[in-house]
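Q: Joint fold for the lines below.
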Amino acid sequence: MAIRPILSTLRRHKTTALLVVLEIALTCAIVCNAVFLVSQRIERIHMPSGVAEHELIQVALAEIGAKPDEHARTLTDLAALRAIPGVTEVASVNQIPFGRSSNNSGIKLDPKQNKPTLNATNYFGENIGQTLGVQLVAGRLLQPEDYVSIKEASKAFKEGKLEGLPRLVVITEPMAQRLFPGQPALGKTIWLGSEVPLQIVGVVKHLVRPSIWNDAEAQYSMMVPMQVEDNQYLIRTAPGERERVLAAAIAAMKKNNPHRIFWQKRTWDEVRQRFFDGDRSMTGLLIGVCVALLVVTALGIVGLGSFWVAQRRRQIGVRRALGATRGHILRYFQTENFLLATIGIALGMVLAYGINLFLMVHYELPRLPAVYFPIGALALWLIGQAAVLGPAMRAAAVPPVVATRSV
Amino acid sequence: MFTYYLELALRSLRRNKVLTALMVVAIALGIGACMTTLTVLHVLSGDPIPSKSARLFYPQLDPQDMDGYREGEEPPEQLTWVDGMNLLKAKRARRQALMTGGAVPVQPAQADVEPFFSDSRYTTADFFAMFDAPFLYGQGWNEADDDSKARVAVITRKLNEKLFGGKDSRGQVVRLKDTPFRVVGVLDDWRPNPHFYDLNVGNYTESEEVFVPLSTSRDLTLPRNGSTDCWGRGGGNDGDHMENATCVWMQFWVELASAADAPAYKAFLENYSREQKTLGRFQRPVNVRLRNVMEWLDQEKVVPSDVRLQSWLAIGFLVVCLVNTVGLMLAKFLRRAGELGVRRALGASKREIFKQLLIEAGVVGLAGGVCGLVLAFLGLWLVRQQPADYASLARLDLAMLGATFALAVGSSVAAGLLPALRACQVAPALQLKSQ
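A: Joint structure:
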């Protein structure tokens, strides 16, 4: 296929050809970046939690009146929950993964260092690791004898004593790697602020934080052996039993003390669902815009192609009369589209890179991986070819006799 | 001539209905997407209290110890109880209010309504006058109530409907956390957006339903919500003794007589910091901030970055749609070069041809704009179905309606200008010859 006649034809339609190129370039640039954003969001939505996702229930209450003996109430509640058939583990906790409200501490390797090495979240509550179903990779989980009560711990902390403070901690693997790169973390001591030394007795694979400010730090979690009496309970049961167990748990809690309000009673799947609501709707929107952009561009090519075919009926007729086959005519329009698309894609790549730079500066996005460029190019070539096929077939159907007629 | 050109335009557009529809839909989609996202952006970055935002200030101090100190860093976003109370009592501004957020159990008198939690605000007397909170019945409490830890409450219209059937409930009793409170005022609908006076409870959250004096809330240790940042040994506190803790957890706002008084108030804050340092309470070098409402919202980056990103995306989409329409229109006009050549040869000036084509483009743009407006309403409806806390705010106001029309007209002119200009350059002789 000779390209020169196509180029000389295009030179006579400079402005129109330029507009097609521009449209393809813009579409290519936006779609590349939007698809990249979508992939980032989807990755985020599937962030590992490190817990038994479909086996957990959260129940949280609040006293209406004055606080009763919290210790006794917590023990009664836990006993009642444990007595429900189907419940395998329970814990009275301070926070839950993806739960939004969180307790965090600065972690130091040396109490004298000025700035903490990192910020991690504190999971409190006896049996919390066992209930969450975290996956141990080294050492052990916390046992009942490791625990101290939060009241004693606060008192000791305020008085500046070490007795009464928790001494051990279980941390996540990503946190261990950040604190002790390339070394085993087990047995090492970390400092909660400058005051509380904790010895690492276990490392778990993942345990996500309740509120995430920075995705890179999403797994910086610790389990500290402190008993809490916050009226917040985590229950583990078989996936199919959750609805029944939740209903039974609510009934049991009401029986224990009716002078309370439930402010949370849900499965952990709902917790995760709610946490990523924003990301999910943004993903939907981005996909919608991508589809709309590609459709508009494709229809634009169809429209323009039809015009050009109608405009050149006579030339096509002449070419046909001079011996060009239908295939020749078809390929002429296909090649023309391919040329325009290629120029557009080349320009689009540069633009895509520019948009990505802008997003990197203003939205803390990573660099666009190179793999998106060939995929974007391929998509636009295919769409261009599919869009021009209709008009090109119509062109190929022009009979040679047209050449002999005047317009 | 205008009506004639209009008729010509309609006839030409009718000749190729699919293509006309394509152009109109492209413009409509672009404008619809743009207006939806820009409206959301406009609503979210609005001024919550336009009449006063330049005179309301949020003082910040740095009461932390030297642990983790680095020069030039921002002071904490909130105040300690001690500093809050000192600044409140100093009364250096026209009005001032110290506050924190919470949630209280409300126990309705009706036996058939279960107790429920309502978001609450614990604050001092000036709050209502300072933030122009509109009262339906009664008014806020006064300083004497603050001092005597009075069991008084202001509730919102919504809660008043729920508890008292919307009647004037002044003097009625509402039970909060097993304690009777006397209702002194009912607020009319009030939802400043963003929730600027306390962003810790959510940037675009609804206003609280119950307002109680701060002193009373501490006396009864009503449950608190929001963020608490501690240093030193402050973290060991259990929430009942927050008054002495080395923790920041209070918001403090001041209303100055005019924005010009800000430097004087800032000097007062610096003086106060120096004084506290001499007393040994503060350790760090003096580090104060005094931002007005909009500066504070800007500092806290309240507008979600996703919303900004969506606006950029929509603008990009509109540009593609416009380029598409320009291309189609140009091809269409150039194809009519013969017809235009005849008109030119018969005496029509370039200006007239240009006018005729621009009217045709304008019709497409206008149709696109009107459809775009409909799409924008649909888009905003979709946004309102989203789970975000700002969702219910996504409504088109008059300013944005005007902007939509401006955008529609602007886009249509932009889309028509280039094709019309290009097509009226047709040389009549050449066109006639080729016929």
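Q: Anything notable?
A: Residues 350-384 of chain B form the longest helix (35 residues). The radius of gyration of chain B is 31 Å.
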